[in-house]
From TrEMBL:
This is Acyl-CoA thioesterase II. It comes from the Bacteria. The keyword Ribonucleoprotein does not apply. It comes from Nocardioides zhouii. Belongs to the C/M/P thioester hydrolase family.
């Protein structure tokens, strides 16, 4: 991420979306990049505790996005930022982000599911996809799902790349862990870097519970998906050097949209973040 002269708000940064085998850039790119842009403007030690995003237009792959950051408020306890992403002269993404200094209080976190097999007992995406074919999957998308997303992702009850493994249940869980140790990022603390990594990975699978209830797999002909809006709360600091359990549940599917909630837990059951997202789900031949 590179700081440039602001044109709209108070500070501005540019970043490039990553390659992926789809017609548009991955939504988690924008969430993570906006998180970094906002964080770079908060220099008094506050940590992001929530961000709320809207995806307004498709974003080109491998192309620059300009993030303009508006400093809305800096208080003793909280700071607020607006981040607006621009590409090709048009707004493509917007979010509001809040940062907190933190204070002494009681503590509670909802409990993690206890009936989920450990990650080491589950196949990697690469192992699952080896020798399989079907639907719209290409060599490029197979490689991307197998190891092109920077994170190892292992599904319970099973992935939905080619078929809906495990049935049309509105629940699933995904163990996630970076393939490699995260490098230092100039200008960011390790905690900010790790929060950005979590924001990046959270978007990959959050719509899958809604797809499950429809019996829809990623490689199904005619499937079109897009992130519409996204909310994320960071309850506790997260260290991205071990497995996290991403427990997910579909909330609603109607009118071509699906909503789901996901919660991230450490291996010892501590809740670190919550995600709620609504996305577009266009399924060929779908009824009401």
């Amino acid at each position: 991420m590179t700081e440039v002269e602001a044109e709209v708000f108070d500070r501005a940064f540019t970043a490039t979306t990553q390659p992926c085998p789809w017609p548009k850039a991955y939504g988690g790119d924008m969430v993570a990049q906006a998180l970094v842009a906002a964080s770079l403007t908060v220099t008094d030690g506050k940590a992001m505790h929530s961000m709320h995003s809207y995806f307004m237009r498709p974003v080109d792959i491998g192309a620059e996005v300009r993030y303009e950051v508006e400093v809305l408020r800096d208080g003793r306890g909280y700071s607020t930022r607006q981040v607006r992403g621009f590409q090709n002269g048009k707004p493509v993404y917007v979010c509001l982000a809040s940062f907190a200094a933190g204070e002494a209080s009681g503590s509670f976190g909802t409990t993690a599911p206890t009936d989920v097999p450990g990650p080491e007992t589950l196949p990697t995406s690469a192992a699952y996809l080896e020798g399989r074919t079907g639907g719209t999957m290409t060599d490029e998308s197979r490689a991307y799902w197998s190891g092109g997303r920077s994170f190892d992702m292992r599904h319970v009850p099973g992935p939905i790349y080619l078929d809906v493994e495990g049935g049309n249940t509105p629940h699933q869980a995904v163990w996630v862990r970076p393939y490699d140790a995260l490098r230092e990022v100039p200008g960011l603390t390790d905690a900010q870097r790790d929060a950005a990594a979590l924001a990046y990975v959270c978007d990959y699978t959050i719509l899958e519970p809604a797809m499950r209830v429809l019996g829809v797999a990623w490689a199904d002909e005619g499937l079109v998906t897009a992130s519409l809006d996204h909310a994320m709360w960071f309850h506790r600091p997260v260290v991205m050097d071990d497995w996290l359990l991403y427990a997910q549940e579909a909330l609603s599917v109607k009118d071509g949209r699906g909503s789901a909630v996901g919660r991230f837990f450490t291996t010892d059951g501590v809740l670190v973040a919550t995600v709620v997202q609504e996305g577009m789900l266009r399924v060929a031949g779908a009824g009401a």
